[in-house]
Specification:
The N and C termini lie far apart (45 Å). The chain has 459 residues and is α+β, with helices and mostly antiparallel strands. It has helices at residues 5-8, 17-36, 51-54, 61-69, 79-92, 107-110, 154-160, 178-188, 192-200, 206-227, 244-254, 264-281, 297-308, 317-334, 339-342, 348-362, 367-379, 397-416, 426-439, 452-455, and strands at 11-13, 43-50, 94-95, 103-104, 111-114, 124-131, 137-147, 150-153, 285-287. It is globular, with a radius of gyration of 22 Å. It folds into two domains: 17-160, 60s Ribosomal Protein L30, Chain: A (2-Layer Sandwich); 178-455, no CATH class. Helix 9 crosses helix 14. 51% of the residues lie in helices and 10% in strands. The strands form three sheets. The chain has a five-stranded mixed sheet. A two-stranded antiparallel sheet has the order 1-9. The protein has a two-stranded antiparallel ribbon with strand order 3-4.
Length: 459
Amino acid sequence: MFLSVFDMFKVGVGPSSSHTMGPMVAAARFLELLRASPFHPKGVRGSLHGSLAFTGVGHATDRATILGLAGFAPATYDAAKAETTLATIHATQTVTPPGLPPLSFDPKRDLVFDYGPALPGHANGMILKATDAQGDVIMEETYYSIGGGFVLTATEMAEAGGKKARARADVPYPFETAAEMLEMAKASSLTIAQMKRTNELKFRTAAEIDAGIARLWEVMNACISRGMEGTGILPGGLKVRRRAKGIHDALMAERGLNMTAPHTINDWMGLYAMAVNEENAAGGQVVTAPTNGAAGVLPAVLRYYLDHVPGASSARIGEFLLTAAAIGGLCKHNASISGAECGCQAEVGSAAAMAAAGLAAVLGGSPEQIENAAEIALEHHLGMTCDPVRGLVQVPCIERNGLGAIKAVSAASLALRGDGQHLVSLDVCIETMRQTGRDMHEKYKETSLGGLAVNVPNC
């Protein structure tokens, strides 16, 4: 199984990889179909289903779909241009995507939130249609946003048949499980990061890999910095205050004082993660790690390593991210990274496992200790529900990333105190996450119909 580090980590826009980035990507794919079609469309329509409907407004799914149909993409998103474009679309009831004629589209009429049963392929489903001059449908496609900004058509989902994709034979180390990963590491005498990098070299040059990884960390780190400077109230109506700047200012004022307690380091880790997720909640630029809702955990742990661990080196950033991507790929391949499919255990839990593995790697851990670190972090997120208040990626999501980062560091430290031998394997833990997600009631899987979402006043 090969899933590139640049698939796991994608530069995008908040607040949600599955509900914002995914629908935008789906709309872009639909435009590609229209450009290649012999038909001459005059209008477009869409419908959002399952979790995309129930929490779509809070996750800006409608906004993302509209902008996607206008030609916007997550990686090149321009916030100022988006605002102008949205105003024009609402005023003219028309979208003008590049390479196509102006298409009739009234956001209030032509994008429907369907609150009935979810589509059969996945909890995050959407249908896009093209119409002729009479309004008759001339082309239609169903898309599923399966988490982390990944999108599949209904046909692609059916071809997979619900089964795991076969390992790609065109990479040197096509491990599909953690057990296979450890076996290959032992046989090759390579680290997990070295195996992952060798696989990447099948598709990119060493210079391209290094530049791509540097870009990912640049965006992650810039997001932390912006978040620590941001002030005001987050959008959406909950009136959640941005807290990262206040925490950062207080921590800076306390630096060097003898009164500072040792556990204050947890505040730094929480700060970095919350800064990212406040930026995400505000619709800023983030990197899926592996999703937007869990985007703060991994950058927080990497920033903790670089700023607070003696002997830390920026030269090991690639090792951290490659190791984390290998673990994230196992979670996605064998279970899920989608909150709408398996709850928040699949998002923050997977993120914590990835971050713990990355930290254990750069602290000198063996492949067995790295696998143990990932397992510990994931195990202690099992069963976590996804119940965003008012459908916004704010409560409990922002603080949850902070605690996920702290758990990840603790998991890595605990694993490094051992020799890598442990009772519960990462494979067993991932399979348990899959089964738990399957059995979890739908109201706890990003629908905002249960949990905190119905017990916290949201107006």
